[in-house]
Design brief:
86% helix, 175 residues, mainly alpha, 2 domains, flat
């Protein structure tokens, strides 16, 4: 039971201080579970990180889940996952509670209204940044265009579009 509490507390601290995204959390996980607590080796961590990268979901949560499993089995996995998400859960729940109290104020509505175009601009910027190194051939531009049009026109399931695009890429490389 003490090990599970240690895992919970360790990953709670990591979740609390991992600002800067998932890879910042990974750096903290390395510091805590390899260097400080010696729960796993660097080699084991690299294998865990590889699995975490391949698994859908946030890298920090996946890494915590796999480290917890390596250290204490299924209970360790559950406790590590809970520990790393708990700080965010508390913060978001608290922020939402306060937001609900002030959301109807005219100033808040103005702020939120002004933020929407900024968020859209940031998303478009991210898409353009991702598109530059991705759209490097006629085939990739064609696949992008077809998927974009199919998505906008027919509202197809994104997973289906990804699978079809992957199949088209595989077929194009085979020819």
């Amino acid at each position: 039971m003490t090990l599970l509490l240690d895992i919970l507390w360790t990953f709670f601290k990591i979740g609390l201080f991992a600002y800067g995204g998932g890879y910042a959390a990974v750096a903290l996980i390395i510091s805590e579970v390899i260097n400080t607590r010696h729960w796993i080796t660097s080699t084991d961590f690299l294998q865990i990180l590889t699995l975490a990268e391949m698994t859908p979901g946030p890298i920090a949560i996946n890494t915590a889940t796999f480290v917890g499993y390596q250290v204490a089995g299924l209970p360790g996995s559950a406790v590590a996952t809970l520990g790393i998400i708990l700080p965010s859960l508390i913060l978001v729940t608290t922020a939402f509670h306060f937001y609900r109290k002030i959301e109807n104020l005219a100033q808040i509505k103005s702020i939120m209204s002004a933020m929407r175009p900024a968020v859209l601009a940031i998303l478009i910027s991210a898409v353009i940044s991702l598109a530059k190194p991705t759209l490097t051939s006629i085939i990739s531009v064609a696949i992008f265009s077809i998927v974009l049009l199919a998505s906008l026109r027919f509202k197809l399931n994104p997973l289906l579009l990804i699978l079809l695009a992957g199949s088209a890429g595989l077929l194009a490389n085979a020819l």
